[in-house]
Write a structure and sequence with these properties.
The structure is a single chain. Helix 4 crosses helix 8 and helix 6 packs parallel to helix 8. Strands 1-3-2 form a 3-stranded antiparallel beta sheet, with no helix packed on it. It starts with a helix and ends in a 10-residue tail after the last helix. The protein is elongated. It is an alpha+beta fold and 210 residues long. Helices cover 44% and strands 13% of the residues.
Amino acid sequence: MDPKELFIAAYQKYITRPGAESLLNWLLSTDFFEAPASSKYHSSFSGGLVRHTLNVFDRMRQNCVYEFGMACGGSIPFPESETESIAVVALLHDICKADFYQTEFKNRKIYSEYGTHRDNRGTYSWESVPVYTIAEKFPFGHGEKSVFLICEHMRLTREEAMAIRYHMGDFSDRNTGKVYEMCPLALQLHVADLQATYLDEAGQNNKKEG
C-alpha cells in the first residue's frame, strides 16, 4: 500500500468516534496527502507529510504499547484498547500543515563539469528549481491549529488536546513541562515526533524515498 492508503486504513481501523468520517473527508479535500512535512528541514518532498505522520504513529505504538507495557510493574499505561487515542494524536498532530505550503521556483547553482560559471567550489550553471514556501491561510499557531481543525469535526479528550497542542516541546512555554508531567500521552507524542524526524527521516530532505 502507498502512504495514503496506509494512513486511511489505520485511521478507519482505530479512529471510530463520532465525527471521524467527516474529518477524514475534510483531509481528503485538502493537499494533506501530497504536502511536504516541512519546507526544507525534514521530508520536504511531495507526500512527505503523510509519511512523517505514519512514522510518528509507528514509533508511538511501539513506544507506548509494546516497550512500556509489561515492563511497568505489570501495568499497561497504553494498552491496545486505548490505541484510538494514540492514533488520534499521532495521525492528526500535524494536520495544521494541510493547505499550508505552496510551490515556487527559485534559481539555484547546479554544479557539474558542464557548468558555464565558476566559483571556489567549481563550475556551475543556474537552474530554476521548485521549492516549497509557506502560504499560511489560517495563522493560529501550530499544535493549537491542529486541535482547532480536529474539533471542527470530532471531540478530543483533554489529554489528546494537550498532547497535540504541546507535541513540539517548546519549553519557552512554561506550561510544557507541566503538561508532560500530567499527561504521558503528550510526552510520548513528543518523543515519537522526534524519533520520526531525526531517526526515521534522516537524509530524506528534498527527495522521495525509493
